[in-house]
Specification:
Number of strands: 0
Number of helices: 6
Distance between the termini: 18 Å
Order of helices and strands: HHHHHH
Number of domains: 1
Largest sheet: none
Radius of gyration: 14 Å
Strand content: under 5%
Structural class: mainly alpha
Shape: elongated
Helix content: over 70%
């Protein structure tokens, strides 16, 4: 499961682009964003939760792709696409799935060493 959650080749590409010493700094920012997303997504309810899910999914498409969080990126892209055609519904499974995937991704990245 680690490989589809954490694409080490993508992180190496990022390190080549921005310098290896900069990766841990940016990774901490990425992990902090995930922590914030989990807390805020859990605290929102109803329509506000869907709006927040849409907002974070749009943001995660880019940041998850940059850090090789392929599974999270794919799911965020799927949510973003559903939101654009108004296919997200209150109390749908997407919120729970996003929370679970954020937890998994965060835990895998926190355990990984560059």
């Amino acid at each position: 499961m680690t490989m589809d959650v954490l694409n080490q080749n993508k992180i190496q590409e990022l390190a080549n682009e921005i310098g290896k010493d900069n990766v841990p700094i940016l990774l901490e920012i990425f992990l902090g964003e995930m922590d914030s997303y989990m807390v805020n997504l859990s605290q929102h309810h109803g329509a506000a939760q869907l709006v927040y899910l849409k907002d974070i999914s749009h943001a995660l498409k880019s940041s998850a792709a940059s850090f090789g969080a392929d599974r999270l990126c794919d799911f965020a892209t799927s949510i973003d696409s559903k939101a654009k055609v108004e296919k997200l519904v209150e109390n749908g499974e997407e919120v729970d799935m996003m929370l679970e995937l954020l937890h998994i991704t965060r835990d895998v990245y926190r355990a990984w060493t560059f």
